[in-house]
Amino acid sequence: MEHLQDTTTLPNGVKMPWFGLGLSGAEDGDEVANAVKTAIIHGYRSFDTAALYGNEKGVGRGIREGFQATGLTREDLFITSKVWNSDLGYESALAAYQTSLKKTGLDYLDLYLIHWPVEGKFKDAWRALETLYKEGRVKAIGVSNFHIHHLEELLKDAEIKPMVNQVEYHPLLTQKELHEFCKSHSIQLEAWSPLMQGKLLEEPLLVEIASKLEKTVAQVILRWDLQNGVVTIPKSAKEFRIVQNSQIFDFELTEEDMERISALNENKRSGADPDNFNF
């Protein structure tokens, strides 16, 4: 991982960038469109949205404006969206995918995820994602916020294994057992909220390591993600942060510092527990 556009190869051969821009919380319209366009201009190639975020239309606009500014084409980007909990039936998940395409103005998505593991519903939605994949309408399929037992339940009947599991992941929530399970099943782990919504930026150990390396705490955390083999998608709508967050390919953390950062783990979440969510 030496460049912003470096990729990991998913089990089906699809190349997924190690680093991307998360778009949760970015307002539809100018804010999200400008963030996407700016990120494309500065070298980002991966963008993560969801039906829940309500900004897919603006994401599509930003992509088109980014193409105009750079001359890139659709094949140069990796676009992810997610099916929301209210659409986790077979037919409703298929319809939700088409709605996401219509809003973004895209012909296909690179990755489509089940957003949360709603018991009794995610298997029907997974069948829909398998259909989309087998028909060539999406390049890769996966899940988000799945614990080991959710994955085990899904794998009992799945024809196609999830290629990605996007979960909350940061130094206070290292999810070691889940990561090992995913690696053993060739499922790529992806981090949302890698900076714990900014709550880690004053953590003394991270401040110490960042100062030593003349990097920001955010850059140290994001580098830690990558060196752990975890795809990461920090979110920001500000150009300065979008650029700064991506400047993590010109240094490496030592094995000792990697271990010290991992030892911060407290199994502490900033978001909902996938075993106890109510939305």
Automatic annotation (TrEMBL):
The active site is at 53 (proton donor). Keywords: NADP, Oxidoreductase. This is Aldo/keto reductase. Substrate binds at residue 115. Residues 26-266 form the NADP-dependent oxidoreductase domain. The lineage of its organism: Bacteria, Bacillati, Bacillota, Bacilli, Bacillales. It comes from Planococcus glaciei. It comes from the Bacteria. InterPro entries: AKR, AKR5G, Aldo/ket_reductase_CS, NAD(P)_OxRdtase_dom_sf, NADP_OxRdtase_dom. It holds the Pfam family Aldo_ket_red. Gene3D superfamilies: NADP-dependent oxidoreductase domain (3.20.20.100). Belongs to the aldo/keto reductase family. The record marks 82 as: Lowers pKa of active site Tyr. GO terms for molecular function: oxidoreductase activity, acting on the CH-OH group of donors, NAD or NADP as acceptor. The keyword Oxidoreductase applies.
